[in-house]
Amino acid sequence: MLVNKFVKITTNTQYFMNSKCFTHQSRSPTINTPFFPEMPDCKHIPSTYTGPNYEDIKTAHETFVSPSLKPFYKEPLIIHEGKRQWLWDHRGKRYLDMFGGVATISVGHSHPRIVAAIIEQTSKLNHVSSVYMQPRLYEYVCGSEANELAFLMARLHTRNHNIISLRNGYHGATYGTSASTAISTWKYPFIVQPPGYLHAVYPDVYRAQWGGSKCRDSPIQTNRYCDCNQEQCIASEKYFCDFEEIFRFSSPYTEGVAAFIAESIQGIGGTVQYPKYFLKRVYEYVHKKGGLCIADEVQTGFSRTGEHFWGFESHGVVPDIVTLAKGIGNGFPLGAVVTSTEIANNLNTALHFNTFGGNPLACAIIEEEELQKNAQTVGTHLINLLNTLLSEFPNTVGDVRGKGLMIGIELISNPETKQPLETERMLEIFEDVKDMGVLLGKGGLYANILRIKPPLCVTKEDADFTFEVIKKALKKHQEKNSKV
Fold first, then answer.
1. What is the mean predicted confidence (pLDDT) over 179-208?
2. Would the pLDDT of 22 be above 90?
3. What is the pLDDT of residues 255-284, one digit of tens each?
4. Residue 32 contacts by C-beta under 8 Å, 6 or more apart in sequence?
5. Distance from the CA of 476 to the CA of which of 1, 40, 50, 112 falls in 20 to 30 A?
6. How buried is 413 (Cβ within 10 angstroms: 0-12 exposed, 13-18 middle, 19+ buried)?
7. Does pLDDT of 311 surpass 50?
8. 256-266 burial, b if ≥16 CB within 10 A, otherwise e?
9. Domain 145-324 falls in which CATH fold?
């Protein structure tokens, strides 16, 4: 319906771009100025954009797209083409994609093998649903709402209802998963949340009550002091004691728990890492209470953290259910729930069906191109570079954290109180980084955390460029505000 309205708007517009609008841009692979860091080379030359003009697309977006879907930046981008870690807008300007569609593009934009697989498969079969068998189904099984399905299976298996999640965690925006999401900015007013969802402790070693310089599984530690050692993390013990309290005060005394769900590293919440051993203690406790443990690997899976293929491996735990999406499809809307036959068999107590459960499109090249190793090498290199920003901009950069190519930079306005950087200033830095050719994400409760989650094929040269761009944007911010 919206497409038809859009067509009516654009039918009488000029589809080929007016050359007067692009006197400062061309199809050149890169555009550098004396004021910007030099962008790494790229041999790919994008095609010329021939679609509707910018204002028509902007008008259509503002008119017909849900108002909740707000584009990034003061001047929203029209992305026209992508190749590996690079994106081009409608003017031909090139950007280094350091956000990867929120950790979705795992092996790179328009990877030739994925393109070939799509062409080969769609020339034979597009869709038949899971009521029939087809030869590609065993490779990946699509599940559009992986966490919802995981909750259902856990409740059926345990015969209990409560789902426990961590504060600041994000597990989706559907009616059920939004109840497990524990970030206020994702909560609609006046809407009664469904029962059976409990939010536990917020184990952030930088911003929350406990944690210090030896607590995080990251090349970079927070600058708070702690007495922890290699065998024991005091912060982990204290946060676990807080976690136990939910069973004493919020959970029914005579009943158990259906499941505990957590991301290996909180993504939307701002790349928050838990103290060492915390997740392992929680898993053991939940299992003793008769519950299942769900690992939400939507953002941390498929080698993003570098050291392991799955994020939960870093915590030394074995989940009962694993939910997957984003990187599984490199941009295709694929998801999966992985569990044991015993747990999955509980779905046989009623009919269960998913229209897209038989999608035949699937591809995996992470291992063949050694992208996990690249994520660890390039990611560690970038994190170590970003670590220098803590001392160079102590009044603006509060924390650098993460591992592999899942990195967060928390921006503040007061290093003593850790007050988040004001929204206006945050957006100025965000916009400046974009103007210099790097696309980042932002997240956290106050949207004051720069999120770096690029395709796993980025290079050290890309990391160096990203660092220089962020550094220049911070320096500009510092100089501007020192004059105020």
1. 93
2. no
3. 789 999 999 999 999 999 999 999 999 999
4. 38, 39
5. 40
6. middle
7. yes
8. bbbbbbbbbbb
9. Aspartate Aminotransferase; domain 2 (3.40.640)
As a whole number, the mean pLDDT across the chain is 86
HEC states along the chain? CHHHHHHHHHCCCCCCCCHHHHCCCCCCCCCCCCCCCCCCCCCCCCCCCCCCCHHHHHHHHHHHCCCCCCCCCCCCCCEEEEEECEEEECCCCEEEECCHHHHCCCCCECCHHHHHHHHHHHCCCCCCCCCCCCCCCCCCCCCCCHHHHHHHHHHHHHCCCCEEEECCCCCCCCHHHHHHCCCHHHCCCCCCCCCCEEEECCCCCCCCCCCCCCCECCCCCCCCCCCCCCCCCHHHHHHHHHHHHHHHHCCCCCCCCCEEEEECCECCCCCECCECCHHHHHHHHHHHCCCEEEEECCCCCCCCCCCCCCHHHHHCCCCCEEEECHHHCCCCCCCEEEECHHHHHHHHHCCCCCCCCCCCCCCCCCCCCCHHHHHHHHHHHHHHHHHHHHHHCCCCEEEEEEECCEEEEEEEEECCCCEECCHHHHHHHHHHHHHCCEECEEECCCCCEEEECCCCCCCHHHHHHHHHHHHHHHHHHHHHHHCC
Residue ranges per structural domain of the chain: 54-111+371-482, 145-324
How far from 62 is each of 14, 54, 91, 164, CA to CA, in Å?
Answer: 20, 12, 21, 37
Model pLDDT, residue 27: 39
Q: Which of 301, 322, 324 is nearest to 140 (CA)?
A: 324
Give me the pLDDT at residue 137, please. Answer: 54
Q: What is the pLDDT of residue 345?
A: 93
Question: Rounded CA gap, 306 and 402, in Å?
Answer: 11
Band (pLDDT 50/70/90 cuts) for residue 346 is very high
For domain 54-111+371-482, give the fold.
Answer: Aspartate Aminotransferase, domain 1 (3.90.1150)
The amino acid present at 474, given as its one-letter code, is L
The yes-or-no answer to whether 54-111+371-482 and 145-324 have a common fold is no
**Is a pLDDT exceeding 90 seen at residue 8?**
no
Q: Which residues touch 244 (CB under 8 Å, ≥6 apart)?
A: 285
Please name the residues in contact with 284: beta carbons below 8 A apart, sequence gap of 6 or more.
Answer: none
